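sorry to bug you again but im stuck and you know this stuff better than me. what follows is a protein written twice so to speak, once as letters and once as structure tokens for the fold. id like you to explain what the token line says about the fold, in plain words if possible. anything you notice is useful, everything is just below.
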Amino acid sequence: MATNRTSNKISTTRLDTEEEKPSTGSRFNRNGHDKQPLPPVKLQGPPKTVWREYFESAVVTVIMALFGMTFIVQAVKVPTGSMQNTITIGDHLLVNKFIFAPGKSLPFLPQRDIRRGDIIVFKYPGNPYDPKRDDRPDNRPIFTNYVKRVIGLPGDRIRIQGNSVIVNGEVVPEHHITAHDNNRKDPLVIQDNPPRKPGELYDVYYKAGPPDDNQDYDAFQGKDELVVPGGSYFVMGDNRNNSEDSRYWGFVPRDLVIGRAMFVYWSYDESAPRSEGVIGLVIDFFKNTRWSRTGTLVK
């Protein structure tokens, strides 16, 4: 009987001892001292207001937009008809500035050299043969953007014979379309569009009738052939009878090239009649926007 009492006493003592142990979630730390609460975290600076958050977001957006417009893309508007009907008056284009970025091109970057047939946007270099034409406010050298097609690369020999462009002794394969130019802001009126032949990668437009073989362009100054200097390009508009281009004012230096015209992000028919008032402007926007040209590639 004594043995049983002893066993029960020991068991009870052990149980009491286990109950007195502090639990894991108690207010004591490992050394038996009371836990001290952590001090509150103080915010650095004044609290942000809603307007401050909007302002910071706007600043970041502007910085990103400026970076993109400086190095990647640029929006330009076409005000003249020298590239009709490839590009019409009122087209708003996005220009790829990165593809012709200066310096050595890396294999993993979408960069390349300028090629014959590319449509480029560049700063107008000025007319050394007729400087008075540069006095117009809409035709200022370096400040006015031009859009033309590259015909001659550095070192090419250029010759114009009637409606044919001859580069290095060979006729450039262009798809010739006969069209009437109303000299307004509406597109050219197509008169004859023959089937495209193999190798004709782009369209050019000429007026009806026999070509003028005796045309003496200013840049040629009586010479039969021009040689494109290094670091420059010979460009022409697709509306060949209504385009001031390298035939008249010479070559485009490489450092004046902005980029390659990519696609039309919006096109507005500037030849359409205008309405009056704010409501009229809204109606004109939807009625005169050329929706079929929106998003079309320039080629």
Q: What stands out?
A: Residues 51-293 form a domain with the Umud Fragment, subunit A fold (CATH 2.10.109.10).
